[in-house]
Amino acid sequence: HGRRSIDVLKIIAPEKANWDYIKHMEGLLPKNYGDDAVEIPGARSLLSSLTAASHPWAIVTSGTSPLVTGWLNVLQLPIPEHLVVAEDVPNGKPDP
């Protein structure tokens, strides 16, 4: 879907549309469901190749920082130097 949780909650549950609540709830997903996580084939080798060649890489996501770093930690993948998450931008998709 790509929409930020805060944007969805503003519509369906405005009382829960705050970053503290959303970051807490999204942060629980990797903790509670990490055993079900499956790595995208080729992701680890791609990141290793980029790092070995000193090529910069980043993640830009509609998820929160606890969500993305939680999944990266569960999968034991590196956290990029540049990470843009939902709470970093004033407007989510489809805003450019």
TrEMBL record:
Single Gene Ontology MF annotation: sugar-phosphatase activity
InterPro entries tied to this protein: HAD-like_sf, HAD-like_SPP, HAD_2, HAD_sf, PGP-like_dom2
Entries under Gene3D superfamilies matching the protein: HAD superfamily/HAD-like, Putative phosphatase, domain 2
Family annotation (SUPFAM superfamilies): HAD-like (SSF56784)
Protein's UniProt name: Glycerol-3-phosphatase
